[in-house]
């Protein structure tokens, strides 16, 4: 059992990052019904912003400064690309986010190049050895930063005034407007929050393995996590992220030696099996439409 501990902690660390990304994705979808296919690029841009700041400042300060910048980036995306398309055909909005993703990929290559980059300094070392097995500092930091952040946002959505207003908008934007709720301001806030969450996840990944255009591939993990938890369930995104991280870790430990590459397919296979039984995800609400 002890030999599983590093895998389980690492899985929880990865799962916390998946949960953060999926949380931002689900918040946007629930508030605006927009599927943000550029979520991986949000992660990429935010991580590179933190990297640039880290050339001048310690990484912790660089991260603290990068988060509000990423929040502002999310606001600009909502104002410039998403708001003009709200209310139009869903295909138009989907194509806009796909086009935005391609544009951001090209912009990152132009500004930062395609070569792998590393943060000049890292986060304080928190790795530890237990029973002769080493638990990495990155896994510990991911758990310490990812889980409290996700739980705080869940509490904020459930208990705070702004959380109640966002949930009201997600139920009916027209009714929210009629009640005088500042929907545009709150929707922009949700997109900004999505950018900040993606940046935090991107920095944690970049600290361990460096920064490169392939970092955007982590954004692909958002879709199975969000679908598994339920596209309209904020709490489900966090639970599904942690669950998927642990399943990946166990697959890495037991199945990868026998089936190389199988771990990469695990999230999508798991989603396929769950959707056969629960089409709306583990925590999604069943929608009934009358025709």
From TrEMBL:
Q: Tell me which positions the record assigns to the signal sequence.
A: none
Q: Report the transmembrane regions from the record.
A: 6-27, 34-51, 57-77, 89-113, 133-157, 188-211, 223-245, 265-283
What's an example GO cellular component term for this entry?
plasma membrane
Which molecular function GO terms apply here?
transmembrane transporter activity
How does the record say this protein sits in the membrane?
Answer: Multi-pass membrane protein
Q: Does the keyword Membrane apply?
A: yes
Q: Where in the cell is it found?
A: Cell membrane
Q: What is one process in the GO biological process aspect for this record?
A: amino acid transport
**Recorded superkingdom:** Bacteria
Q: Which UniProt keywords apply?
A: Amino-acid transport, Cell membrane, Membrane, Transmembrane, Transmembrane helix, Transport
Q: Which family does it belong to?
A: Belongs to the binding-protein-dependent transport system permease family. LivHM subfamily.
Recorded protein name is Branched-chain amino acid ABC transporter permease
Taxonomic source organism: Thermus filiformis
């Amino acid at each position: 059992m002890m030999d599983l501990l590093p895998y389980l902690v690492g899985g929880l660390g990865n799962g916390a990052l998946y949960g953060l990304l999926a949380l931002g994705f689900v918040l946007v979808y629930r508030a605006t019904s927009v599927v943000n296919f550029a979520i991986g690029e949000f992660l990429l841009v935010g991580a590179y912003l933190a990297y640039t700041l880290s050339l001048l400042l310690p990484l912790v300060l660089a991260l603290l400064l990068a988060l509000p910048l990423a929040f502002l980036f999310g606001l600009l995306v909502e104002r410039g690309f998403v708001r003009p398309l709200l209310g139009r055909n869903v295909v138009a909005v989907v194509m806009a986010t796909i086009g935005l993703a391609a544009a951001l990929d090209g912009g990152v290559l132009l500004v930062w190049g395609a070569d792998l980059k590393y943060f000049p300094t890292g986060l304080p070392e928190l790795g530890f050895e237990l029973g002769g097995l080493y638990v990495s500092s990155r896994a510990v930091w991911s758990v310490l930063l990812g889980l409290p952040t996700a739980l705080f946002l869940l509490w904020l959505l459930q208990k705070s005034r702004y959380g109640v207003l966002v949930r009201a908008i997600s139920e009916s934007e027209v009714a929210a407007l009629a009640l005088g709720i500042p929907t545009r301001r709150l929707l922009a806030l949700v997109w900004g929050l999505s950018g900040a969450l993606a940046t935090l996840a991107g920095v944690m990944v970049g600290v361990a393995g460096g920064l490169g255009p392939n970092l955007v591939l982590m954004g692909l993990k958002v879709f199975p996590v969000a679908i598994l938890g339920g596209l309209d369930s904020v709490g489900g995104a966090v639970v599904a992220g942690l669950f998927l991280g642990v399943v990946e870790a166990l697959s890495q430990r037991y199945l990868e030696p026998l089936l190389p590459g199988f771990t990469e397919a695990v999230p999508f296979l798991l989603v396929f099996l769950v959707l056969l039984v629960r089409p709306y995800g583990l925590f999604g609400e069943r929608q009934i439409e009358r025709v």
